[in-house]
Design brief:
Blueprint (H helix, E strand, L loop, with lengths): L1 H30 L21 E10 L16 E8 L2 E6 L5 E4 L3 E7 L1 E2 L2 E2 L6 E8 L2 E9 L2 H22 L1
Antiparallel strand pairs: 1-2, 1-9, 2-3, 3-4, 5-8, 6-7, 8-9
Length: 170
Amino acid sequence: MERLWLTLAMIGVVLLAAAGLWWGWRNRAARQSDLPDLTEPPSAPSPDLIEPLTGLYVSTTVSGRWQDRIVAHGLGRRAKAVAHLRVDGVLIDRIGDEPLFIPGADLRGIRTAPGIAGKVMATPTGILVFTWILGHVTLDTGVRADDLDDQRAWLTAVKSRLDSTDGASA
C-alpha cells in the first residue's frame, strides 16, 4: 500500500510540473503578443545566393539576452530546417512548422555563438545567429548547421551582403 501512495505522489508531481511548464509557456506567449506578425515569404522566390544550409532551427530570442526565448508566432519551437540566403532576405524553412522569413532590409548582422535558448554547444562557434528587427524589437535567431564548413561560407556570404547593402544605402 505504501508503494501505491508513493507512485501516486510521483505521478502528481510530474503532472504538476507539466502543468507549470504549459502555463509558463502560455503566459510567455501572452506577454509577447505585442510583437508584430512575421513577414510572409514572397510568393515568387528569388534564387539562392549560396548553397542552402541544412541544420536545426534552435530558437529566436531577444537580442543580447540569449536565454530570453520568443515563443509568440511559433518562434519558440525547435525544428529541422533548411536556410536559404536570397536576394530578398533569409528564408529559414522549418520542417513541420511555418517558415521564418527575415527580409533583407531587417537583417542587421550575423555571428556565431556557443549557444542560444534551447541549445548550448561545446564550441564557441556552434550556433549561427542572425540578428534582425521585427517591429520595435531586435531579435537573434539561432541555427545549428549540420556542417561547420557550410556555416563559415554562410558567415562570409551574409557579411558581404550586409556590407554591400550598407554601401548602397550610404
